[in-house]
Description:
single chain; alpha+beta; six-stranded mixed β-sheet; Deoxyribonuclease I, Chain A
Amino acid sequence: xxxxxxxxxxxxxxxxxxxxxxxxxxxxxxxxxxxxxxxxxxxxxxxxxxxxxxxxxxxxxxxxxxxxxxxxxxxxxxxxxxxxxxxxxxxxxxxxxxxxxxxxxxxxxxxxxxxxxxxxxxxxxxxxxxxxxxxxxxxxxxxxxxxxxxxxxxxxxxxxxxxxxxxxxxxxxxxxxxxxxxxxxxxxxxxxxxxxxxxxxxxxxxxxxxxxxxxxxxxxxxxxxxxxxxxxxxxxxxxxxxxxxxxxxxxxxxxxxxxxxxxxxxxxxxxxxxxxxxxxxxxxxxxxxxxxxxxxxxxxxxxxxxxxxxxxxxxxxxxxx
Length: 321
């Protein structure tokens, strides 16, 4: 029975060491995506060890469960403060269209219902562009920076506000990332980009996945505020994404206690995956987060993520005396 207890305890301990050490290498990149499930399971070995009065095993299990919980639980706890409290409110949304096959009407309905100001789309094809236009997106968000291509590599950015300096870069994984600068009325300019690093779908893709995350634009506290939103193909349990966030960003969902809401793997198609959170809205630390919601999109394996933000306002001009 002691051996059985340790067989339960050791996997959680090893997982905690790998997660806390940021050692996501090889197949571990995929496995660490499911850390939230392991964190919940890790308390069972502790209960089992306590019931058997195996105190050393219980102590080890407590360390493992505690470490994993500390890594995961804050995403479900709303931050006490989300500065700034004043500024200009905007709504942004991101949606991966699964090779362009997602229901365009459902996407446009969300834009209309929630008064979305900026929409980022990934896996954006020419057919998807046509479908969104037919559903009336151009009437709601008339400005755009688009790079539609067949397959999974396309990207798009739609806006209620004029877009300056539009463009789309192509990362090492082969995905485009549409970008542009917007200036909501009364707000300072904002750099917005539709993010889509390579997916760690195989060990052979890990080099591109890691490089794409490392080359995502960092937020510059002395420059224009930035919003980076899209399908990052990474969870907050991946060291590369945490490092990116550490360069001047916050994860909007985690700020408001919605960071454990899954966005991908919602049992689409013949293969069923435990759902995980790989779609994110990353905001400059000068941008406040008021609310985040996640919505199902028919014919896509990703859910859309909506975020209500407060962006810096234009500085008031002193009145002449």
